[in-house]
Amino acid sequence: MSTFTPxxxxxxxxxxxxxxxxxxxxxxxxxxxxxxxxxxxxxLQSTLFLLAPTSIAVLPVAxxxxxxxxxxxxxxxxxxxxxxxxxxxxxxxxxxxPGSTMPSQHPIVVIKLAVRSNHPLGILxxxxxxxxxxxxxxxxxxxxxxxxxxxxxSNSYLxxxxxTGNEIMVMVYFxxxxxxxxxxxxxxxxxxxxxxxxxxxxxxxxxxxxxxxxGIMHEVYQIPVGKWENIYINYHPSGIxxxxxxxxxxxxxxxxxxxxxxxxxxxxxxxxxMAASAGNENEVxxxxxxxxxxx
Length: 295
Known about the structure:
This protein is about 35% helix and about 20% strand. By secondary structure, it is an alpha+beta fold. Among the domains are: about 35-85, no CATH class; about 105-225, 2-Layer Sandwich (Alpha-Beta Plaits). A hairpin with a 2-residue loop joins strand 7 (about 245-250) and strand 8. Helix 5 (about 125-145) runs antiparallel to helix 8. It is globular, with a radius of gyration of 24 Å.
């Protein structure tokens, strides 16, 4: 069988993990509740009224509203490109290991790492700043040593169950559990350093009541061949779809995206994407609206 055709041309430089995209701004926004943000805005506006004439004090708000309104109209009318669509991949796609000849041909390991602060200072507490730094360093180390550990990529997520101070999670993909284990226990590695910091500085070897205000967790899933699948419709590269794979193209080492066309053939259905059917069991429900799209 022939290998699946990737949607994107491989890059000569490994793209940085999606984990780093927009993370700091989101964490800062989640650190304060909506009433706090409204209070800060009211305080700033009141200060302007005290320090400047009314006509000048209202100017920043008027300018911001005018620019936002005009920008929305331009995007809505199609006169300006929608920035939210800049990374969206139209149509129906799925992620498969480059070079595969059948769906879900290789095993994969997923680890979810998360941290939460229940301290009144939230993410502003020194422990959270230190833990966040360890997260950044760990992903950066994986980016630079992806072949050594079988690292494929990672994404960061922010929960929404609380008004503020939510759980921060990183989902990381590896080729094998052995690669994950090697990274976790690497002598002198950043993960061991973070582990020691947690045990000694945060928890104080279990003796610190203050340390119980901070929580961490991980979940690991080792998924065998034929037991995983994914689908993306008009979606930006995310999850395993945002990972990268080292490939050989014309004698050159390059980095490939795993996204392939999922409008036809075996990739049309969940069973098909797990190599458990020919991808035609959903035909009883009518035509797939994405099948007739132009490539």
